Amino acid sequence: MSATTAVGAGGIRGPRVRPEPLQLRLLEVAFSFTVLAGLLWQDIAHWNKFQTSLGRLLPWIVVVIIADLLPVPIWGSVELMMSFPVLLASALVFPPYIAGSISFLGTLDLREFRREISPLRDFYNRSNVAVSVFVASWIFHRFGVDVLVWPEVLVFTFLALIADMIVNFSLVILGTHLLTGLSARRLWTNVYGGSRPDVFLGGYACFGLLAVLMATVYSAAGNAGLIAFAIPLLISRQMFIHWKRLGEANRAIAHKERALTAVVSRIADERRDERLALAAGIHDEVLPPLYKVHLMGQVVKHDMASGRLLDLEVDVPDLIRAVETADSSLREMIRDLRNSKIGPTGLAETLGLLVNELEATTDARVETHVHPVGGSPMIHLLAYQLAREALSNAARHANATSIVLVLDEDQDSIRLRVTDDGQGFDMLGVDSSSHFGLQLMRERAELAGGLLLVDSHPGEGTTVLARLPIAAEKRPGP
């Protein structure tokens, strides 16, 4: 029964329909037409009973369509369809061929109307629903129990529910595996409950067992009882929405904890780099004039001790010039430190040094188009950090051989773009438990009022685009 259906995967940039792999299309065609042919064969074989039941089927189809107008997204390409208990209830009330027909005709996926999935994918989803319901109904009716026989009906409904879940989950995972290339184990973890699959499966089973109550109400009240289906469906939908939001909140907290740990480590590295840069600046720019001050002071002292006062006319001006040079060097260094958080050379030259280091330590070659940009020192530091992370990912993780770095600005923002020809990756396949660089980059950009977009697909390289505000955001005061 379709609790879940697959759709095209989306990346950070938002939904984008990906061309389906050939294996997935073959599965969709073969499975869908097999299921449709089987349903038609069953309906024709029982045509007299099917024809007399048409008046009872239409209200069920309408209820299924209405329930499917309110799906709950679970993960990436999978949604929970709220018609699940309704369809399972039809499996308890009607024979398999009628329940399967209701499922095939009534299942509705709004994403097809929004052109987010192909008609063939919708056909596969409908077939998944139909065969799941058909199997559940066949198992339930094989024991010959009536929905009004309590509590025995609960046992056989649970068996039908298990069969439905096995068929549906298997088809969903198979289709999503062919679409994304992710392993079945990884898909099971992401789709069905994450770190707490017991919570999801328990709630899902209780959701399915609502079918017993729905079937009982329908047996007692007929089509008028279908109206009462709305109450448990709405309550269950809110439960799954809150469950999803709680899971997202837990994942966000885990991301932030790992990001904070990484930030602490990187701050230590950046402070070490700053100390080294400061030490080099003092050694190269400040110590030479100070040493000259020391030497000229010794010369003046020697002149006064030896009574060579006439030599002071030459040596004292040299001492004064040495002091002025040292003073000027110190002031210039202090001014550079105040004006740039990434060193006295500024953003453009610091990016150049970063590129030179990357080319010296990896096989990648970087084409740079770096222009002077405005913005505060903190924004410059953020742009440097984002560029460093993107370049490092491209050269060391994506095995890119050609990288393009672009830095420019428009009227109100700095634009940073890093494009590589590396191996790329599937956004849904990123293991956030160990690779959270993208999450960290995005949070850094958003905290500064900017935006980070990532576009990548396996074998197609990666593009990282960041927009950062030139002017600091004005926050409302008290």
Notable characteristics:
alpha+beta; 478 residues; three-stranded antiparallel β-sheet; disordered C terminus; 15 helices; disordered N terminus; five-stranded mixed β-sheet
Fold blueprint:
Elements: E1 4-6, E2 10-11, E3 14-15, H1 22-45, H2 47-52, H3 54-68, E4 72-75, E5 78-80, H4 84-93, H5 96-106, H6 110-113, H7 119-142, H8 152-180, H9 184-191, H10 197-221, H11 230-306, H12 312-339, H13 346-361, E6 365-370, H14 377-397, E7 402-409, E8 413-420, H15 437-447, E9 451-456, E10 462-469
Parallel strand pairs: 6-7
Antiparallel strand pairs: 1-5, 2-3, 4-5, 7-8, 8-10, 9-10
Description:
- With 478 residues, the protein is an alpha+beta fold.
- Helices cover 65% and strands 10% of the residues.
- The protein has 15 helices and ten strands.
- The strands form three sheets. A five-stranded mixed β-sheet has the order 6-7-8-10-9, covered by helices on one side. Strands 1-5-4 form a three-stranded antiparallel β-sheet.
- A hairpin with a 3-residue loop joins strand 7 and strand 8 (413-420).
- Helix 7 runs antiparallel to helix 8.
- The longest helix is centred in the middle third of the chain and has 77 residues, at 230-306.
- Residues 1-16 and 473-478 have low confidence and may be disordered.
Order of helices and strands: EEEHHHEEHHHHHHHHHHEHEEHEE
Rough outline? elongated
Largest sheet: 5 strands, mixed
Radius of gyration over C-alpha positions, nearest whole angstrom: 34 Å
